[in-house]
């Protein structure tokens, strides 16, 4: 009986061949598209890495003004580095009622990363902060003195110059020396707010990332497009999920038709007293067998077709830089989907037919 | 009865659901640029990066007859954490008039330094009024810290952008003082606008919906505004000096790559829906192969069987399509409500118009009837004695496996 069971599972027929072809096409479609989506991700990531993205900023938490990083962290870094300390404060112009809440910062830039030539000097005001005071009726000049207040702390600073928008730092900041900043915010004693690395400092960036810092580049247009394309991948995965349902339906239909044609075999097996579980198990095994053969062929063909499609895009005048990627996901996901659909497609109709025939033929 | 109506209905309805989820979302993807750059309004844009647009024109336009709102805007493509964010430098009041937008309760009336997040963006980023965000430059190095001062919402799928003052946006995009990328105008009298703009002697392009562009004080012909804005933005002198040419290439190649993949998906989606319907109808008709065999045996032609099948399939296809499109549409709306599909920081909003709904139902009925015809033709073309035989097994080789013979041999 066991040899018959095996022969029933493995038997060849024209319809079984077409079922395998159908399953292979479904798997090919899923494998091909997944490998293209993964290829799109890798290509995007590779291309994005080639562009300038500006200096790298590392800070803690969600904001620069609340980030506090011990100064000794800088000792772990191998390359050049700059540091920004920053806090929020109320800024008054002496002799006027004008008050603006803005950011007060000090910069340490021994290696010239920030490209702000007088970064260590005090009393430099961003042009848009100066414009704000002008709009409030307190235009600034070389003699203007500012009262800085935060909580119960306060200090004074004289405006020595105004800086424009061509620097890394925002034009609503007031740059002061570190002792002035400490008089305003004691939490910055021994701490800094932001570490600035020159572009390309991968080792130091990864180290800081591993230490739990937020990492952001100072120019993000390339990152915008990179993340945007990753979002498109999300859409493509959703579409893929939808098509997986169709593929499941196809595989289910193909196998249920295949099993449906074997109803006289089911009747015969019941007549000779074969247990229902064995009959169902036989057809499940057959469904699994056809699905595995079909999905193996389809997976291989999927990678091949994806590569061919990408090659042929040049024929229609589109240059595609996507290289389909073979991965565990692109291999296992379609095979598992198809296998599950195949087993369901075999189990449900054979179970239904078995129960129906059992009524016709009492064992 | 040739077809199993219940099984056919369920299968075809499932296909309709999948079709109706996909189509409105795919149409929505196509409408993203239009929503971002507002093709429903008149847009004035710069002719080239060498001829930036003066924000003062917007303030002057407010005095022109028929102008309800004029919004000077600067566009910065940024990233905050893992979120691509379209940062729009605006005068909030004018922008909200253009978008028919509103500020949510609790928003601050701040005009100097504000960051107003769209409802959808705020939801994606998990931020609210009072939260801080760190913005970095788009095409020039910059770092800015902002407080979220408000949340805005706008109809028609807006609410994906971060609104900041023009001076902050200039810092992010590197354009000069007093300049903007574009001015969007709500106006009822385009002639008056053109006359005013000609008087300013500024070179610019007026774009209206439907891709109609009119150059003013210049001979340059202009294509779609969204293309102009995107490419000219990346063509800025500052960025060009660093790596602009590479980025233009990146954008161009990236767009083409995405088009290849998305275009392929659209074509395959339609094909798969058809193939899925064929699978459903084949399975349904396979259960009735004996009846089809009997009909053939008593003299029914293939055309007769095909006609009978279509007659029975038509009401099933219509019912399944209407219900499937309804359920699929509801699912597409749910996907939008949960913000599951986002592209370049813009939510993909499903598009439902009467034409699209009718098109989906007609397409699904056609696909279903096509699938029924294909399956019925295949069954009707088989020899009656084979169709009537319950097994219908055809061997690949002459030596077919026969269970009865094998059991007898084993005994």
Q: How many separate helices of chain A?
A: 9
Question: How is the largest sheet of chain B built, in terms of strand order?
Answer: 5-9-6-10-4-3-12-1-13-14
- Main beta sheet of chain A: strand number and arrangement? 10 strands, mixed
Quaternary: heterodimer
What structural class is derived from the secondary structure elements of chain A?
alpha+beta
Q: Find the count of extended strands of chain A (DSSP E, 2+ residues).
A: 12
Our Rg estimate of chain A from Cα atoms comes to: 35 Å
Tell me the strand percentage band of chain A.
15-25%
Classification by helices and strands of chain B: alpha+beta
Number of discrete domains of chain A: 2
Helical fraction of chain B equals 40-55%
What spatial form of chain A do the alpha-carbon principal axes imply? elongated
Q: Compute the average pLDDT of chain B.
A: 78
Number of strands of chain B: 16
Give the count of helical stretches of chain B. Answer: 15
Describe, in plain words, how this protein is organized in 3D.
The complex is a heterodimer of chains A (363) and B (411). Chain A is α+β, with helices and mostly antiparallel strands and 363 residues long. Chain A folds into two domains: 2-49 and 224-360, no CATH class; 56-218, no CATH class. Helices cover 52% and strands 16% of the residues of chain A. Chain A has nine helices and twelve strands. In chain A, a hairpin with a 5-residue loop joins strand 3 and strand 4. The model of chain A has no long low-confidence stretch (mean pLDDT 83). With 411 residues, chain B is an alpha+beta fold. Chain B folds into two domains: 5-30 and 254-388, no CATH class; 52-202, no CATH class. Helix content of chain B is 53%, strand content 18%. In chain B, strands 5-9-6-10-4-3-12-1-13-14 form a ten-stranded mixed sheet, sandwiched between helices. The chains are: A alpha+beta (363), B alpha+beta (411).
């Amino acid at each position: 009986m066991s040899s018959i069971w095996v022969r029933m599972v493995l038997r060849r027929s024209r319809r079984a061949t077409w079922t395998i072809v159908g399953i292979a096409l479904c798997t090919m479609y899923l494998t091909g598209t997944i490998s293209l989506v993964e290829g799109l991700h890798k290509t995007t990531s590779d291309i994005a890495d080639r562009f300038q993205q500006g200096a790298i900023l590392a800070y803690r938490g969600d904001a620069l003004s609340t980030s506090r990083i011990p100064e000794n962290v800088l000792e772990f870094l191998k390359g050049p580095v700059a540091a920004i300390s920053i806090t929020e404060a109320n800024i008054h112009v002496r002799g006027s009622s004008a008050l603006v809440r803005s950011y007060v910062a000090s910069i340490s830039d021994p290696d010239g990363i920030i490209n702000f030539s007088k970064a260590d000097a005090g009393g430099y005001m961003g042009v848009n902060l100066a414009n704000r005071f002008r709009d409030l009726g307190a235009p600034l000049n070389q003699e203007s003195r500012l009262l800085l207040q935060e909580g119960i702390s306060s200090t004074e600073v004289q405006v020595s110059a105004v800086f424009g928008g061509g620097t890394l730092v925002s034009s609503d900041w007031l740059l002061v020396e570190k002792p002035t900043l400490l008089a305003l915010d004691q939490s910055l004693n021994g701490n800094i707010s932001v570490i600035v690395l020159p572009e390309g400092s991968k080792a130091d960036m990864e180290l800081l990332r591993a230490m739990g810092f937020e990492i952001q580049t100072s120019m993000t247009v390339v990152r915008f497009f990179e993340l945007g394309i990753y979002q498109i991948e999300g859409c493509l995965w959703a579409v893929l999920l939808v098509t997986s349902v169709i593929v499941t339906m196809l595989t289910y239909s193909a196998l249920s038709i295949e099993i449906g044609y074997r109803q006289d075999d089911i009747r015969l097996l019941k007549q000779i007293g074969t247990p229902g579980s064995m009959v169902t198990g036989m057809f499940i095994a057959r469904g699994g067998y056809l699905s595995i053969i079909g999905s193996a062929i389809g997976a291989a063909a999927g990678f091949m077709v994806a590569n061919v499609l990408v090659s042929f895009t040049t024929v229609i005048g589109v240059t595609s830089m996507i290289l389909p990627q073979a991965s565990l996901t692109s291999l296992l996901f379609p095979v598992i989907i198809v296998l599950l659909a195949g087993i369901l497609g075999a189990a449900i109709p054979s179970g239904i037919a078995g129960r129906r025939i059992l009524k016709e033929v009492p064992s | 009865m040739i077809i199993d109506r219940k099984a056919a209905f369920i299968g075809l309805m499932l296909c309709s659901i999948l079709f109706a989820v996909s189509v409105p979302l795919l149409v929505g993807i196509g409408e993203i640029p239009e929503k971002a750059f507002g093709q429903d309004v008149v847009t004035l844009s710069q002719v080239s990066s060498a001829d930036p647009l003066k924000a003062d024109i917007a303030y002057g336009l407010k005095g022109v007859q028929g102008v309800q709102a004029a919004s000077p805007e600067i566009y910065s493509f940024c990233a905050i954490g893992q979120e691509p964010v379209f940062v729009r430098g605006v005068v909030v009041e004018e922008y909200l008039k253009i978008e028919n937008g509103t500020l949510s309760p609790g928003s601050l009336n701040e005009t100097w330094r504000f960051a107003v997040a769209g409802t959808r963006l705020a939801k994606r980023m998990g931020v609210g009024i009072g939260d801080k965000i760190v913005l970095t430059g788009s095409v020039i190095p910059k770092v800015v810290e902002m407080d979220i001062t408000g949340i805005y919402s706008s109809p028609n799928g807006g609410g994906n952008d971060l609104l900041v003052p023009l001076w902050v946006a200039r810092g992010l995009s590197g354009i000069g003082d007093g300049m903007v990328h574009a001015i969007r105008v709500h106006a009822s009298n385009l002639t008056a606008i053109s006359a005013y703009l000609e008087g300013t002697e500024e070179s610019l392009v007026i774009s209206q919906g439907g891709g109609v562009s009119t150059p003013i004080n210049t001979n340059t012909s202009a294509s779609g505004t969204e293309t102009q804005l995107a490419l000219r933005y990346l063509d800025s002198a500052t960025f060009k000096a660093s790596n602009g040419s590479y980025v233009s290439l990146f954008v161009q190649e990236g767009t083409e790559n995405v088009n290849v993949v998305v275009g392929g998906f659209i074509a395959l989606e339609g094909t798969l829906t058809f193939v899925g319907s064929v699978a459903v109808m084949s399975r349904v008709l396979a259960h009735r192969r004996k009846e089809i065999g009997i009909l053939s045996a008593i003299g029914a032609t293939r055309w007769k069987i095909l006609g009978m099948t279509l007659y029975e399939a038509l009401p099933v296809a219509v019912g399944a399509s209407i219900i499937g499109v309804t359920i699929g549409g509801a699912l597409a709306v749910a996907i939008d409500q949960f913000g599951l599909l986002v592209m370049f920081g813009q939510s993909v909003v499903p598009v439902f118009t009467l034409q699209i709904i009718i098109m989906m139902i007609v397409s699904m009925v056609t696909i279903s009837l096509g699938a029924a015809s294909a399956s019925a033709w295949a069954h009707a073309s088989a020899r009656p004695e084979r169709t009537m035989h319950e097994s219908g097994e055809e061997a690949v080789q002459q030596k077919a496996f026969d269970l009865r013979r094998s059991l007898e041999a084993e005994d």
